[in-house]
Amino acid sequence: MSKHTPLDETAAAPAATVGGERADLLESLAKQRHFLRFTTRDLTDEQAGLRTTASELCLGGLIKHVTSTERHWAAFIVEGPSAMGDFDQMTNEDWARRADEFRMLPGETLAGVLKEYEEVADRTDALVASLPDLNAGHPLPKAPWFEAGGWWSARRVLLHIAAETAQHAGHADIIRESLDGAKSMG
Length: 186
Prior knowledge:
Radius of gyration: 17 Å
Shape: globular
Distance between the termini: 43 Å
């Protein structure tokens, strides 16, 4: 994409005004986000920060991570690889901040984490509705987890966001069931 507009300035278009593939993408994103958020229903801030499995993950941390991931990928659609940062240049402090995405930190609340997630989701949805071309894309940033020379279209990024959200909704379901027996489905 040639225009480098920050996401906050992206023209918002209601999801109801789009059809076809864009409506399908928005519906898929909404469904996966719902399942992720649903795992936190009726929890206290303390419960949202508890680790209930061998993993370092907690429900509030998963929401934070998915929020950050979606924010960065949506920025990638608009700005290209510079939105993702230079992973080769990350310091130990940068990696520690990244690890904090997976936990509830002192002073953070579940309501605050969910509000931020909703704001990011709304901006992504507006982006989906207003993108001139879902085929437009950028080279992937240099990172050990990306294929060398890879290139992703906006469509591919949006599918990745939906898949990432679905994957973490599954993690969240296991964490919640371990916490108090509640399930998202079944």
